[in-house]
Structures
1.
Amino acid sequence: MLRATLRGILAHKVRLLLSGVAVVLGVAFVAGSYVFTDTLDRAFTGLTSGAVGDVIVRPGSADESGGGGGPLGAAAVRTVPEDLVSTLAGVPGAARADGRVTTFGTFVVDRQGKLVGGGGPPGIGVSYSSGPAANGTPSATLVSGRFPAAAGEIVLDATSAQRSGWRLGDTVPLLTAGAQPRIEATLVGTAEFGGSSLVGASVVMFDARQAQQLFLDGGTGWSTVWVTAAAGTTQDQLLRSVQAVLPEGFRADTGDATSARAATRIDEALSFVTTFLLVFAGVALTVGAFLIVNTFSILVAQRSRELALLRAIGASRRQVARSVLVEAGIVGFVGSALGVGLGVLLAIGIRAVFGRVGLDLGSTPLVLEGRTIVVALAVGVLVTVVSAYLPARRAGRVPPVAAMRDDAVLAEGGLRWRVAVGAMLLLAGVVGIVGGLLGWGSEPTYVLGVGTFGVLVGTALLSPVLGRPVLGVLGALYRRAFGAVGRMAEQNARRNPRRTGATASALMIGVSLVTLMSVLGASAKASLDKSLAEDIVADYVVSSVVGQGFSAAITDAVEKVPGVEEVVRVRGARLEVAGDREFATGVDPAGVVRVARPDVTAGSLEALRDGDVALSTSQAADLGLTVGDAVTTTFAGAKVEGRVVATYEPDAVLQSDVTLTLGTFDELGVPPTDRTAFVVAQPGTDRPALKKALDATVADLPLVGVADQAEFAAEQRKPIDQLLFIVYALLGLAVVIAVLGIVNTLALSVVERVREIGLLRAVGLSRRQLRTMLRLESVAIAVLGAVLGVVLGLVFAVALQRSLADDGIDVLSVPWLQLVGFVALAAVVGVLAAVWPGRRAARLDVLRAIATE
């Protein structure tokens, strides 16, 4: 039987190739996802381990939950004094102690006046120190030139130097979040930092004294102190020695522990990348499964005589079924092996895409773990074998005599169980969607997701029945436009509803997801526009083009522009509020109610005083706090006591769950960097002239931009458009597999109908008419899949939008023209899918075709 199976594969290698391609593409996404995320993990592990010393001392209290002013968190204004550095250098087990300045928001401007990096990863400013990082790793390794030795000299990381076009000796413009928003310095060297990729971040190294002058208000202290362990001393031993001399108000951690915490936070933050990619891998494999089922079902039907002969010479039902499964397993294994190789190439492509949005892994080698190969092979083989299981059972159950008469293996009576199961799944899915919207269970979103999956699978099973009205409408159009050729195309599409439905279902899945994302994206943008229009009263918005803080001096300059009546600045920092670490917003309470319309649910924002806190309604509930309760806020060891004075619903201005005054930020020592500034024009001011003056104020500062409300809304929509572009590109893979399914079905159908095609040609059907008939059949399948997909996607999108209404997507927007375009594009896809099968059918010799049994 094994020999017969292998011969069967060789005899049908072209037919199996298309199914193999589906496996290759689906497995490639699985392998590529793991390769990319493993590479990402290695890059961040190297980055975090190279950004810490053996023991790190920073301002803060021992009971803080991490963060603070170290190299992996925001640098606080409160510093470690010089004399403590000397003390730490003398503790038992210490080889040396080095003070360091680390700050975020320092970016390089390239030769064209554009910002280098900043698309997410930070711009880091550090002071030069010859001390090593943890475990003896060099904190910086020169690539060219020398380290800075005086004020006005800098070293850049090698990647940023290359991207910016600056060379040694050039005067480099820099933008900072400090008191001087723009400075210039001479490039004296390039270096690698931390011994690994910076993952898109840029690093500027300053002379130590200049770093203190720029970022610590000219003080003599340090952001952190790295204590290096002597030979034979462990980090834990050194930590105990350091803690013994550490005064109150400072905390110490080992480098390994700090690196591990940072890596964990990064892994949690980026876990969506793995999930995101694997979801699309699952979609591709699901679509591929439809193609595999169809392929093996048709092959079993076409090989009925061959299988009957095997039964006649003694093969059992189990052996026949097993031969089909072995055939599927071989196809799955070969396809999976090729998919792993393609997955590596795909990971390179994913790395390039993420590099364009700032997550640059270009210098990090790809990581191919053994787990990736095992999982990819297992998934590919399992999906292929499971998909071929039902066709294999049918192959084993066909009586030899019936097969010898060439009776159809895929009897239409088999639709009964399909319709019954599909109806039950569809009903259960609808109940799940309704339950998710009604808030059933602890995680209603999961209930909604399960319901959506049930509706999708149920519709796929019911597609032979649900597709009849669509095929009927298309048939009427075909008959009117193409006459007898159109009638034959309709009848061919209806001939085997199971096959037509399965082929259309593959495309349906891809189109439904594209429709879902289109409607959800349009709704998100409409909701954003509504939120900005309702929440912001200001005439202009000054904001960072990279979503990070900028120098308060920029806002000071904007305040001085003639025609500006008021500027309300908003700051942000990660603080610890009531023991919970949260991102907080700092505002002027009186000013924010003049430029925004906050939705206050209890208390009053105007009552917010230094030390007090306003919380989002959900955050207050999570912390068990109400208006009037006492609350403690902590940052880098500094604490302030206050009370909760208001609760509110987050909006376009108060975006975080915690709001404090600017005075509280200053008292806690939060760096004075602004995230947004809202500008109110004086009544009667010439708006175009004012806008021109505001633009001139930030003309040499590409870190920030000035926008009116319409421009600001357009800027906020860009990330949504970028995400949709990536999603469409990934879903394109599923559509490609679905198109292969249509090609496969038509090609196998041509083989199945060779004698019929010969007879049609003999009675006068021209080659052109034959190609037209197959083209119309292909269009019918594609349009059926698109129509079902658009309808399902629209239902899913409405349900998901309603479930996300409380999270900000409270406007339903349906891009009808775009949805119609999807159906039209599906028709074009159908035309293209029929090209190869049509040419193959037209080339058949008429006499040989008639003689075919």
2.
Amino acid sequence: MIDRTPPTARKTGVKNNSAAAFSTTLSRLAVAGSLALISVSPSVYAQQSAVQINIQQQSLSEALLQLGQQTPLQFIYTSDLVQGYSVRPISGQMAPEEALRRLLAGTEIEYSREGNTVNLRRSVNTAQLAPVTVTGTIAEGELPVPYAGGQVASGGGLGVLGSQDVMDTPFSTTNYTSQMLEDQQARTLADVVVNESSVRMMTSTGSFSEDFQIRGFNVTSGDVGLNGLYGLTSSHRMPAALMERVEVLKGPGTLMYGISPNGSIGGNINIVTKRAGDEPLTRLTTTYESKAVLGAHLDMGRRFGTDNQWGIRFNGVYRNGKTSLDNGRQKLGLGALALDYRSPTLRWSLDTYAQRENVDSFRSQNGFRPGVSNIPAPPSGHRAIYSGADLTSRDATVASRLEYDVSDRLMVYGAAGYRYGASEQDFPSARTTNAVDAQGNFRALNAWYDAYSRNKTGEIGARMNFDTLGVKHVVSLSGSILKSEAGSFFLSAPVSQTIDSNIYNPVPLIPMTGERHSPTKASETTLSSFSLTDTLSFADGRILITGGLRQQRVKSENFNAAGGVTSSYDEDAISPLAGIVVRPFENVSVYGNFTSGLTRGGTAPVDAANAGEVFAPYKSKQYEAGVKVDWDRVITTVSVFQIDRPNSMTDPVSNIYSFDGEQRNRGLELSAVGEVMSGLRLMASATFYDAKLQQTAGSVNQGNKAHGVPKRTFNLGADWDVPWVQGLSVNARAIHTAATPYDAENTLTLPSWTRYDMGARYRTKVHGHPVTLRATVENVTNENYWLSSSTLLTVGTVAAPRTVLLSAEIEF
């Protein structure tokens, strides 16, 4: 566990006290880190009566800071005393000293007290023991502690490599915490990952699905991991209510996670589900979303048995009402249950969730007519361009994981899961000559498109650590398999029912008639792989080298409506990984990596001229280098990268989907995240792209900018605890995306856009129960703009309008 307490002396938590700040500065200069003082209360006398305590899982130093904020106690200790310790969550009514005893339980720390002041020191019988700092892999079964400010974690999972501290990772990663999800009122995964400039949404709130772009390449909703396994998340959208962490890895993660179901290479997103904490939890949250969607979320957790070995966590969500789209409605139901068992050597978990969503009028993706002179201005975000299009989706998943520590040096594990998902939707289309023109006119034809998918996945593996001639090793071995079956039913209306419409004044679609059949099997795919990795540690952990290989196999068969095989392939390849981290100073990491992956070939979309045609797997590769600096309470990262992969596109004239040449994305990423000063949290990032088409057939479009990739993106978010109003915090966020090439010919461009969000929350108590009131306004200026998408074909989606989110949360 990496200690996150600043090595220098500090006095934190006294707000608007210039004398205290000046004293702290003198202390730092005088003793250079020998003393850390936390004093967070204006009270003079310690109160023995019970107070409400709410402390999250985090480092001991951060937990003491929170305890000082919630009680009159003041703590004096040296920074090395708390190094390497983390604490489990505690909450409830208790005396301040009882809370302190719980935090120190199991440590080598004792305390003495004089009034408000609490002196911490190492126990006499252990005073001569040297502190031990563990680098690299986090303790098995433990989540990395939150970093300063609590919005992101100090580390996260990396598939077969296990959990690692961000400073020991040869990749660029961001690990969002449940605190950030709650404070930003995240509804779905999209509300979480949008906080970083390297990630952009390709679809808007209320669309058919949530698809992402990482480092300029697409990551579809079905390529999101759940507790490290692919194939278990919804292909439409994942609810935030069941998420404890969201881990984002930028760049191909094939070696760590295996091949994603839909072949995404821009990066990996992994959801870590909630578990029951040691303290009982009953939390009810009521919600409002404009136009008039009302909802409720119940979150309950309990542990029981000897040493709280057994845990159960339930999350239930229901929302219903009018959306911001014209004549739009949404009805959502979610139930998620998590069971777990833990002992000193064995960890087991079971997760299951089911959700159903009915949407009247969802946000459509729109193509633009070939040869159009300019992209028309976007209509109002309230406008339902395909008026009358409806969607129903259902998902059900069950997954289990077992880990066993054979010894202090060897851990073995196994995981398995099953998911079934289905959807029925109106599927109006306006492609090629019927697409939107410069005046916003288009011709549309209604259709039905129903689909299902059934996934079975599993993984077994082992992780072992040992030393050879002074070199430390962490070796992992794994084998995984994902079997996926997909089916569909498509029926288009007669051409005579084509309507003339306009994006600013849509004409309702002619309702579909005819016989709606059940979807038939269209494909079966098996993705299997074996991996072997080794992370070597030299020079007391200052040099870390990771190397590995993953042997992958892609086997696929495609079927016609009668069940006959129309095409198949069986391909395999070996994907290498090489990564290095050099730490010239304790707070500086210089890193680099090279990785290559085999990606499942694409399938022509349903409305392409060659619909259903399946293409062979292809390889992609990434080079990356960067520097991370931990400034005690803020981590900054600078990285450069290059990703190469075969380019897919749908020709706007012939309407044929194909692979043509190579897309090369180069980029520069800058980021800073943490707590810049007490009570002020910051998330800032910028990404600059140089994305081009290479080796195209006949040199057509050679050297052109890659469509769908902006030249630059920026994010800036701040969250501030208002010092003169206890419990009040305000936040603001700006998201900017530069102009984006729409087509491979670079004749059309989607304009740049900037979105501003604002919010506030107020924490208080009502009859002794913690209550949190939150208010958020997204797209404050009600900006209308196009979002770019190029998953299978280049289209645009109108972004959501100004949206108000309100919630009231109470804990019992």
3.
Amino acid sequence: MKNTLLAFVLLLSFNSFAQLASISGHISTETKEPLPGASITLEGTVRGVQTNAKGQYILKGLKPGQYTIKVSFVGYKTQLQEISIKEGDQLVANFTLSDVTELQGVSVTAQSGVKGNTFLPQVNEYTITAGKKNEVILLDNLQANLAMNNSRQIFSRTPGISVWESDGSGIQLGVASRGLSPNRSWEFNVRMDGYDITPDPMGYPEAYYTPPMEVVDRIEIIRGASSLQYGPQFGGLMNFVLRKPDLSTKLVVESQNTTGNNGLFSSFNYVGGTAGRLSYTTYYQKRVGNGWRQNSYFNTDHSHAELSYAISNKLKVGGQMTYMYTQSQQAGGLTDTEFALNAQQSKRARNWFSNPWFIYALTADYVINADSKLSLKYFGTSAERSSIGFTKPITEVDPKGNRQVDRDYYQTNGTELRYLVNYQIGSWKNTMATGLRYFSGEIKRKQLGVGSNGSGMDFDIQGLYTRDLVFQNTNYAAFAETILRPSDRILVTLGARLEQIETHMTGQSGLSTTGSPIAVTPSSRGRSFVLLGAGTEYKLSANTKLYSNIAQAYRPVLASDLLPPATTDVIDPNLSDAKGFNFDLGYRGEVGNYLTFDVDYFYLNYDNRVGTISRTNTEGKIYQYRTNLGHSVSKGAEAYIEFSPTTGWLRGSKIGNISVFASIAAIQARYLDFKTTSVVSGQIVEGNLAGKRVENAPEKINRYGITYSKKGLTLSWQISDIGQAFADASNTISANAAATTGLIPAYQVQDISGSYKFKKYAQLKFGVNNLTDTRYFTRRSGGYPGPGILPADGRTWYVGLNVKFVN
């Protein structure tokens, strides 16, 4: 049935093209070189294509009328041309684009490997980004181990990003910025193509799903100021934009196959293209390996399909489906002594983890006119998180008895309507973005089930779960933000967001001595609040600007805060919401195509912050206690500079192209006044966190690199220099017996990677991660899959072959 429907749509579209008009042509530079990948759009419509490898394009199926053709390409001046189309016309429109920048009368053109990161425009589709600290990570420009989603390399040029390197399989992403927790990126609003992919951003925002980086076109990051348009998260937005169907060809077939040590094999296969009004793409990735440590193994399957169809010149509809299935053996934690003796060892041979993930989205884009447009997204998630293993402190020997089973089930659905309009007040040419959002999420958490006494991945249990809780969350939101442009050099942004959150928890908190369920007292909570923000930009030159922004943020108490973890942590029953604000002041821009820079000062105010603190019980044992730790402030400076001396000083040099980058962050994250108590030798001892460093917040996050490219060969070297951190808010230096608290030492790690293109359709990729085989760790875990130190991977290597065919 599906195949018949698709054939019918294609037949209709092809028949209609025969009766309608088309525009074709060639896009080139002033030196007569073709520009592949240039964008050709008809303003005020949803129609657009890209040029092929020869700089050619064609737009089919056009109705008679007046159109404005817009031709654009990064680094070149955009061109507009009015055109009149009659029925059946086969028009030809060629364009020659000139460079945006000139240096002393000499044109400057981009060379390979110059720019790994760039910035978002003032308005990015339906979002206002002017005045905000933002980055765009261009995956095609990175030399990185994309087959394994190596976060250290992917975020190398993004200053201030801390990374938890405790999952060498590349399945889960743990990143943060500015002193926030990297715990599965939960301080970011994590999205894919603009819609949510976490279990529940307002109830359980942990990122258990990460798309394969081989299919990601770019990663868009807007720091905390994105709270006005994407939700109240302190960290901001992280949006994975997948490769879209190739608009210049009917068919693209690509296969990337990678192998490496520890049994690594990854196969990524992609098909996409455009046939008239219909665009399509699909991919499948299989990744399997034994992992660097003992008792580690992963086996993942990713699949994705996307269709979009331009029903008319004004309306385009589409749909996406993504599915991931994982099997992952977890090596567990280590004590400090065990880590020092052999970081590859494991004392947990029976711990397994799986998180099948299904995401879907339906989209519609409607262009009202050249100055206004609408976007509607309906999206949802059906997913699980399942674990089985021996979860006692690492100091206890696994007796090989029945293992503990814990399972989460997630069901979510949401809708976002966005409207963007350009409007004028006098001579001011302004832009406004508004939106409405509805989101509903349900989390079923089943814990402390009695599993099998075997060693494989088996989530069946005997009897009932000890805990069986349901957390429901409903979120309504409305936002509006505008750009006011008093002149061509200065702009001001003003915005507000209204949030309403309703939560409800029911279920079973335990079992009686007779095995009967003990019901939890149902609890409900509702709150409404308004977030405000403002920003500004001032152009110092055509390509450099000063920017500043201040925006309020809010973090509601999450399901992960209220529902206790399955192992050693203890939860404060009186947790309350956190609130605060983000402030940025920076200077960014580009000089020619040889220098990109962004330097900024930030201030993050986080009140009533939720975190962990070490406490001592009446038995003298230290445990982790999750509570409101009071007020914290993160402030510091971030800088990203990428420079190509060969492009800037030796244009046309035969030695090839060299570019260097530095990504530097100095962060001071401190707690203010907050009283604490603990029991020592039976006596209550009072303390205060004032002046203590925020946990998991290195004061130094520096990364440097150099890239050399000539013809088809590109080589990169990178070093990460990360400062020490603490695992808890008490800043415990000496580790406890279970290694859940203590110092996280500073470390340096190096990576080399490269690629070689040949035969026009093939590319060889290779690299060595952790070149010097450094032993280090970034995380002390208090729960699964620890507890204890979770070592980062030692030296690993990979080599892959990418083959691409275009029709």
